[in-house]
Amino acid sequence: MTKWSVAASIFIAAFLITSVSGQQNNRSDRSDTFVPGEVLVQFNHSVSRSEKDQSLNSRNARSIRHFNSVDIDLVRVPPGWSIAAAVGGLRGLRGVINVQPNYIRRGIPGGPSDPLWLDDTLWGLKKIQADLVWSNFSVGSSDIVIADIDTGINYSHPDLAANAWRNPFEVPGNNIDDDGNGYIDDVFGIDTANHDSNPFDDQGHGTHTAGTLSAVGNNAQGVVGVNWNAKVLSCKFLNAAGSGTDAGAIECFDYVLAMRNRGVNIRVTSNS
Fold this sequence. Notes:
- The protein is 28% helix and 20% strand.
- By secondary structure, it is α/β, with parallel strands linked by helices.
């Protein structure tokens, strides 16, 4: 496992597979906060696939999706089990490190769609003195890839089109999974909310964050990003209403990590 893989796995474990005992008390057992009948399970890496399945079967549970790059399972629990009972029952299994419900996440609405640097609408960039970095160091490199895990991006937007990442292993529009990663025509990234390979933004927030990250600079229109040239890989896990699940977010991390391990120079993820 590479250092980046280890770091990503630790981050995901800390951010998503959190202490259930604390969260369960705060969030209760309401079905509007998580997907009923589903939990996320992280086993010790030394536990084999057959041992994992055997342990889950002992509780009449089964893995319905394994996120290979981050080594986390989306697990279906028996009908009638409360999520609290499922979490408690699975946490005691041999080799289990963490368990949590498959929580539903809701995005925060984005800001204005067409702010301008010159009229001080982009006050955040002024606040961090981005202009001093641009003039004294760099406006950014096109060799850098940023993964934006959000509502997708409008990759045809005039301020984003040039900086939308293109999958170098995929042939656009041929309806074939050229790179063999399980996603057909994932040219710009993937959409785990709608279970397809088109992460086009139908909500707005992801386009807003992508613009903050890497809108084209010095083109006399729209906004400017912190990095004028970095490519943005889009993974849409929040739907048009701004909702998405932890499993969808983990699938995004799994995809991003797999791409990183294949040589795509992904240096950071934005998890707004």
